Amino acid sequence: MTIRDYMQSLGRGARDAARAMARATTGAKNAALAAVAEHLRVRRETIFAANATDLAAAREQQLAAPLLDRLELTPARLEAMADGLQQVAALPDPIGAVTDLNYRPTGIQVGRMRVPLGVVGIIYESRPNVTADAAGLCIKSGNATVLRGGSEAINSNQAIAACIAGGLQDAGLPGAAVQVVETTDRAAVGELLTLSEYIDVIIPRGGKGLIERISKEARMPVIKHLDGVCHVYVDTHADADKAVTIAYNAKTQRYGTCCTMECLLLAEAQAEAVLARLGPMLAEAGVEIRGDARSRQLLPQITAATDADYYTEYLAPIMSLRVVSGLDEALQHIERYGSKHTDAIVTENLAHARRFLAEVDSSSVMVNASTRFADGYEYGLGAEIGISTDKFHARGPVGLEGLTSQKFIVIGDGHIRE
Amino acid sequence: MTIRDYMQSLGRGARDAARAMARATTGAKNAALAAVAEHLRVRRETIFAANATDLAAAREQQLAAPLLDRLELTPARLEAMADGLQQVAALPDPIGAVTDLNYRPTGIQVGRMRVPLGVVGIIYESRPNVTADAAGLCIKSGNATVLRGGSEAINSNQAIAACIAGGLQDAGLPGAAVQVVETTDRAAVGELLTLSEYIDVIIPRGGKGLIERISKEARMPVIKHLDGVCHVYVDTHADADKAVTIAYNAKTQRYGTCCTMECLLLAEAQAEAVLARLGPMLAEAGVEIRGDARSRQLLPQITAATDADYYTEYLAPIMSLRVVSGLDEALQHIERYGSKHTDAIVTENLAHARRFLAEVDSSSVMVNASTRFADGYEYGLGAEIGISTDKFHARGPVGLEGLTSQKFIVIGDGHIRE
Asked: Exposed, middle or buried by CB within 10 Å (0-12, 13-18, 19+), for B207?
């Protein structure tokens, strides 16, 4: 079978399974999630053996240490995968929920019913836990899914796929509801992106290069996440304690996440006092600061920032910094250099907070809180399949609701249009 | 200036104006809508003169009578345009609305704020009233818009565009918030579809050919509406009076709309009784019925339907008909031949109503009501920019809300992530 024929057959299978999944009861979906968790625990040694094969091949190919770390499945990570599925089972079922059912002057009742999107294609890189996480969210939201993981994790992903298939079977749901692509041939991704007849939406998870390629080639809608160039702006009316605490947390709590602060903007009235305390803390944490001329006069450890620095998502212990005159200049900076991901203001002034919330065009906008909160779990979505920096369909952390749509329902008693 | 340069300049202007529109107050937006309505009324003679020029050219090119009808602006149609703008002004402003603002265990408050999409591109055919309708919805929803009407309506559209520009100016809003493409060069559409940097979403309104071309070429998301092959299924447990009334209304109330019934499915237990009454009514209305062998045994006026008939959106006094064994066969027929637009069941049986609502995968699903209700005004959306048969972002009639998105807002008091 050619790659094209293989991917077509996966697509057709997914489309058929999607119909069954849309009609699956909450009980059956939850039973499948619990059964997959059980299979993961029971077959742990098989999964670890498959993962060891992947790790050995990756070491042979001299993959970088962070990639090896993401590829590795430890007992704790396997337990987290199983536990995550049980947590998704415990979330309310979004499908079938009817809202806004109101009488119209004509006498009909009009409302909306939440429905699955259909078939979700997910393309991701090394971490094999995404296979279980994504499958769980798609099962709960009544979608079928085609999963394409990284070639370096192929054995781990196939071992996890066997557990998912077992769980679906136990619950009487179609095995094709979750299909993990079995080939490492790179042509499979290209074929997947052309299956607009079978795949309703593509969600890429991975580096910027992967996401840009997918956005360009996909013939169906894409829920995507590009850069996270996140700002904290310390306003003229900020509380200095909160400013120092929030900026330090937003930068240092984790360096490699998309909601880590990459640029600190300081109102000139606050710059000296904040830098006097924050500078030594960041120095001790080993964070390099690249700033403008005014900031460098205040703190000698700051090196010179180029214009390109302000556009950069470092994902590392490096940050940019700029002293601004106040709120307007901060808003202009964020509009020009930001990536519409997550931006925060630190202020005690209600008018400034209100303007910042309304005017910053980002998927998450915060007042007096660390940008690190931009996460589906922290927001109470219960789970997260990714973060969208698009405006269309879903924006910000995407949970179960982002995998659904709403149709209109109309209930009458013989009503006709006059 | 080349067409490419011209369209680029429109795009840049729209992007700048979108920022101002996102921040425009409800008062300013409503003032602009009222002022545009006033300009339309004051400049009516200029608009009629421009429309007469378009009509003369169209007659010279021997355009078909329905196209000429759609192109013509009568005093009543002009008044309806102005009145429509005032109705949109009276709707609640969706922008800035905060919902679901809840405390999380960490102490932060997380909610969602409704925001504009940004720049909306609208491509439409002959009816010049779309220019004012679309501009009104985009202004109210805080978006900028680039409008590309049919070349046969160019003079009418430019006259209306002058009124819109006047209204925006009166309200202190940027003129580039609504830009009507001034050239009839067909290359302008192609250029518009590549402006993904400036245009956030495209809404095509017109025939199937136009919509298919745009879906294929657009580099940005498209809110689109393809066929409306709408069904009425008369269930085994239907009330025959309601069945006859609804089927007759769904077919004959207007033939040319996307929510007109194109296929009637009759449960075999009902077929004879329903056809005995409905057949003569449809015959009197001049509706041709194309049916399967069983229906033809019941009513001699029915001609033989081909398989292709069941896929056809007639938009004319023609309909297809099939006798089915019951609910399951009806659901299978709709799944195979339907276009996921609007489908209705007539039944007194709650279990069948419940299954039909849950299982039919269409943008509107109805019980005991005419498919002709599938309309933004009938649904209480206050206005309609189109109907979406996609599942992504918006489904069914699209009003102001479909032109918006939601961002997350987080409010803390110095909160950091542990």
From this structure: exposed
Whether B239 and A410 lie within 8 Å, measured CB to CB: no
Query: Whole-prediction pTM value?
Result: 0.92
Q: Is A387 left (phi over 0), alpha (psi -120 to 50) or beta?
A: beta
Q: Which of A375, A377, A416 best probes binding to B when mutated, by most B CB atoms within 10 angstroms?
A: A416
Cβ contact A14:A147 at 8 Å: no
State how far the Cα of A369 lies from the Cα of A373, in Å rounded to an integer: 8
* Per-residue tens of pLDDT for chain B, all 418 residues: 899 999 999 999 999 999 999 999 999 999 999 999 999 999 999 999 999 999 999 999 999 988 899 999 999 999 999 999 999 999 999 999 999 999 999 999 999 999 999 999 999 987 899 999 999 999 999 999 999 999 999 999 999 999 999 999 999 999 999 999 999 999 999 999 999 999 999 999 888 888 989 988 998 989 988 889 999 999 999 999 999 999 999 999 999 899 999 999 999 999 999 999 999 999 999 999 999 999 999 999 999 999 999 999 999 999 999 999 999 999 999 999 999 999 999 999 999 999 999 999 999 999 999 999 999 989 988 888 888 988 889 899 999 999 999 999 999 999 999 9
Structure tokens given for B31? 């003032």
A114 strand-pairing partners: A406
| CA B37 remoteness from chain centre | 22
d(CA A323, CA A325) in angstroms, rounded, equals 7
Residue B87: how many other CB atoms lie within 10 Å: 15
Residue in this structure with the two tokens 């080349």, named with its chain if needed: B2
Question: Of B344, B357, B414, which has the smallest distance from its Cβ to A242's Cβ?
Answer: B414
Report yes or no: A13 and A176 within 8 Å, Cβ to Cβ. yes
Q: Which chain A residues are closer than 8 Å to B115 by Cβ?
A: 361, 391
Pairwise CA distance, residues B370 & B372, whole Å: 5
Quick check: A173 and A20 in contact, CB under 8 A?
yes
Q: What is the DSSP letter of B126?
A: S
Tokens coding A63: 């993959």
Total residue count of chain A as it appears in this document = 418
- In this structure, the dihedral spanned by the alpha carbons of residues A67, A186, A137 and B411, taken in order and rounded to 10 degrees, is 60
Give me the total of CB pairs closer than 8 Å, taking one residue from chain A and one from chain B. 214
Distances (CA, A) of B12 to A191, A334, B119, B144: 35, 19, 10, 11
Inter-chain CB proximity B391 and A370 less than 8 Å: no
Q: Return d(Cα A387, Cα A342) in angstroms, integer.
A: 11
Alpha carbons within 13 A on the beta-carbon side of A43: 21
DSSP B71: H
Nearest CA in chain A to B348: A413
With 0-12 CB in 10 A as exposed, 13-18 as middle and 19+ as buried, what is A317?
A: middle
> CA–CA separation, B180 vs B129, rounded Å?
13
**Contact criterion met (CB < 8 Å) for B391 and A200:** yes
